[in-house]
Amino acid sequence: MTHTQEQATRITHTPEQATRITHTPEQATRIQSPADLLQLTGQPLGVSPWHHITQDRVNLFADSTGDHQWIHVDPVRAAAGPFGRPIAHGYLTLALGPLLIAQTLHVEQLTAALNYGLNKVRFPTPVPVGSRLRGVVTLLGAQQRPAGIEAVFTVVYELQGSDRPACVAEFVAIYR
């Protein structure tokens, strides 16, 4: 099921949270400090803008990773392949995760947001070149750790025009 902007931003907060948590015009969650994440566990944070997946973007990713498989970088050969056109690398899709999170969560007093890893990743449907993706981001959990606030986000990568997500991933980050 595709999320609408309205569904992703129906966030309820306690009166104490309401003084620290606001939404930007693009409906992202805005908090004052990383510690505010502790109060948002289980809450949807927002929906990112759409991102166009171009052949140039796919080619740059292929150059960066050395993965020049024809299904990604050869439009002529890919047209005769199983998807009828080139598809983005799964890891290119996944690599957009930190951007999608940053577009849905703004922490005012942030020293650093550090990638700590991934828990689960699935790619239910391929991302054709020329398509558009956006992220629906939910804070799955947050805990105080010696290094800072450890936050686990679920990102559902919506593929425009598809009922199935392109990717579903749990990202773990440390916020200081």
List the helices and strands and how they pair.
Layout: H1 5-8, H2 15-18, E1 22-23, E2 29-31, E3 44-47, E4 51-52, H3 55-65, H4 70-73, H5 75-79, H6 90-95, H7 97-104, E5 105-107, E6 113-122, E7 132-145, E8 148-159, E9 167-175
Parallel strand pairs: 2-5
Antiparallel strand pairs: 1-2, 3-7, 4-7, 6-9, 7-8, 8-9
What does this 3D model show about the protein?
The chain is α+β, with helices and mostly antiparallel strands and 176 residues long. It has one domain (5-51, 88-175): Hotdog Thioesterase (Thiol Ester Dehydrase, Chain A, Roll), CATH 3.10.129.10. The protein has seven helices and nine strands. The chain has helices at residues 5-8, 15-18, 55-65, 70-73, 75-79, 90-95, 97-104, and strands at residues 22-23, 29-31, 44-47, 51-52, 105-107, 113-122, 132-145, 148-159, 167-175. The strands form two sheets. Strands 3, 4, 6, 7, 8 and 9 form a six-stranded antiparallel sheet that branches. A three-stranded mixed sheet has the order 1-2-5.
